[in-house]
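Duplicate of #3305? Posting structure anyway:
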């Protein structure tokens, strides 16, 4: 592809090969659809007014919506055509995008949650993460439960508390069972954690009662975001038996604001690790169904420098997105545009690639050193956690930007009554 007339740094996550969609606002511009490119945002409503999308059948009001749902629901043929027009315009010296009204500096914009999320499911798809957790809390010889290699384990989470990058995260409170005690207490979590994940956004509705075949699952995936599933490990340990996560997870999850279309990730496909034993036919896939996306987690204390505490990769996932979606719907469960499906914590086999503090500190027994002194076993008030991700192949770079959140002190009325 020729170089763009717009100056874009070689290490920018938002290259002409990417063109991710999001929702932004700026002075004089209420919430609307934008596309990230370098240090700018393309205002698609302004582009439409200049005839850039003529003949594609996209009403300008779609670009002026406060979420991407209406745009995504137009279908991949249309959304891909919009990206194609944008890519061509960014290398055309006579492009209508050169009008300053169509380009908004990222620094002048406010970025919002990109989609109205109706439902959210979190999977448990990293074999390394599942093995580490099983080793810590069960018999190491039987770290994986019997079902784990046969199906993508998941649970239905809370969509209402999913927030966009930059939203502060209030330390949650709940029931905790102190060590050696028989009775729980109500207290703020002392084991607040992050979880390094990616998530995919559903791009079209399915029909209730009709499973999505694994070979057609990608037709239903619009794009991907980074995902931090904040977790209160002490609350989780007490409550999760017998039905799984609840208050330990539903207080907040953070996503990156720019949805990277699945088409932009085509160059980074890789074959997943062998699945043994063989999966049931409805989960069987062939070819490169996984993605080579480098991931990292940075931690900045209230006063101090950032420490990169984890470097991992999406290719470590055992279960692919298509398998997750096929399993999710095999019983006839339907999905809708804007639904979010998260991968679960992505950990690799090496200590530096673990995707949570639970693993990095091995349940608090191995403090993680920070730059400039200090350590962490779990998150403290004032800590800022930032997840980043990008994929590269030759001179092609496609990135996700970041998802960031700062931990705020607990502020629960029941704690003040003590």
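Output from current build:
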């Amino acid at each position: 592809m020729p170089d763009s007339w717009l100056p874009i740094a070689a290490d920018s996550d938002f290259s002409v090969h990417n063109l991710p969609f999001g929702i932004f606002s700026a002075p004089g511009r209420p919430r609307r659809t934008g596309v990230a490119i370098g240090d700018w945002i393309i205002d698609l409503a302004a582009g439409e007014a200049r005839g850039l999308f003529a003949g594609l059948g996209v009403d300008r009001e779609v670009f002026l919506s406060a979420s991407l749902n209406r745009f995504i629901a137009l279908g991949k043929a249309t959304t891909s055509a919009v990206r194609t027009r944008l890519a061509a315009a960014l290398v055309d010296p006579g492009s209508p995008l050169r009008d300053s009204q169509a380009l908004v500096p990222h620094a002048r914009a406010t970025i919002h949650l990109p989609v109205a999320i109706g439902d959210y499911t979190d999977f448990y798809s990293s074999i390394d993460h599942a093995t580490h957790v099983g080793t810590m809390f069960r018999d190491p010889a039987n770290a994986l439960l019997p079902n784990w290699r046969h199906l993508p384990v998941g649970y239905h989470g809370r969509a209402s508390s999913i927030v966009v990058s930059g939203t502060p995260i209030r330390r949650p409170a709940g029931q905790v069972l102190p060590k050696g005690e028989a009775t729980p207490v109500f207290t703020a979590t002392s084991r607040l954690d992050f979880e390094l994940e990616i998530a995919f956004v559903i791009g079209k509705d399915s029909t209730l009662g009709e499973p999505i075949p694994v070979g057609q699952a990608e037709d239903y995936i619009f794009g991907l975001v980074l995902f931090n599933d904040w977790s209160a490990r002490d609350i989780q340990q007490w409550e999760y038996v017998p039905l799984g996560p609840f208050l330990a997870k539903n207080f907040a999850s953070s996503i990156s604001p720019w949805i990277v279309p699945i088409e932009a990730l085509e160059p980074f496909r890789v074959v997943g690790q062998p699945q043994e034993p063989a999966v049931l036919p409805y989960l069987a896939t062939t070819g490169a169904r996984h993605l080579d996306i480098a991931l990292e987690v940075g931690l900045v204390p209230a006063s101090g420098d950032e420490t990169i505490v984890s470097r991992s990769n999406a290719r470590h996932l055992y279960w692919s997105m298509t398998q997750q979606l096929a399993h999710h719907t095999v019983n006839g469960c339907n999905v809708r545009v804007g639904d979010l499906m998260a991968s679960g914590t992505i950990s690799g086999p090496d200590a530096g690639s673990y995707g949570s503090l639970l693993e990095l500190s091995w349940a608090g027994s191995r403090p993680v050193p920070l730059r400039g002194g200090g350590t962490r076993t779990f998150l403290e008030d004032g800590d800022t956690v930032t997840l980043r991700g990008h994929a590269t192949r030759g001179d092609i770079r496609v990135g996700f930007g970041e998802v960031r959140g700062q931990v705020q002190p607990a502020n629960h009325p029941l704690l003040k009554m003590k």
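Confirmed duplicate; merging threads. The radius of gyration is 22 Å. The CA atoms of residues 143 and 364 lie 19 Å apart.
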